[in-house]
Design brief:
Length: 172
């Protein structure tokens, strides 16, 4: 005990002591939760960025292939070969979203093409390819058909433009 000052009646009190400052480690549960959410957001952002880059690359490859077909047509002028190659490219892209696209003909092929939101004249141009590939001397408007194919491929390369096959009535 401390000595009492003269004239006081009671024990001598010590000065007030503050508790030690809280340690920064280990972190409180709220900080762990915030770190987990930040990590999850970072992983999701990386996934979306990678997906976007992959889709951009696929779209670029499709349009490059279309340009190669147009360049070959300018060089050799074979309308039948261009019609067959364009038709094959369209089928290949459509088959990514619907396996039945490889076997479709006529109206069912038009419905598959129409699942991508494009204008009706674009669909008419693309359906003309379906007829032109079976003619020995295929004659069609090449610049308009290439523009229609470019328009359809740009829209078809976006996965959200394709509605689910299961939602369509009568689709097996």
């Amino acid at each position: 005990m401390m000595p009492q000052p003269p004239g006081s009646k009671g024990p001598a009190l010590r000065d007030i002591h503050l508790p030690p400052a809280p340690s920064w480690w280990p972190l409180a549960p709220g900080w762990w939760l915030l770190a987990a959410l930040a990590l999850l957001a970072l992983i999701a952002a990386a996934w979306f960025w990678q997906r976007h880059r992959r889709l951009q690359k696929q779209r670029r490859l499709l349009l490059d292939e279309l340009e190669q077909l147009a360049t070959c047509h300018v060089r050799d002028g074979n309308d039948a070969a261009l019609a067959a190659a364009l038709h094959q490219l369209l089928r290949r892209v459509a088959r990514r979203h619907d396996e039945a696209a490889a076997r479709q003909r006529g109206e069912s092929w038009r419905q598959t093409l129409a699942r991508v939101p494009v204008a009706a004249p674009v669909l008419d141009r693309l359906m003309a390819l379906d007829q032109a590939i079976y003619r020995p001397q295929a004659k069609f408007d090449v610049p308009d058909t290439l523009a229609a194919a470019r328009s359809w491929l740009q829209a078809a390369a976006k996965p959200r433009t394709w509605p689910s096959v299961a939602k369509e009535p009568g689709h097996v």
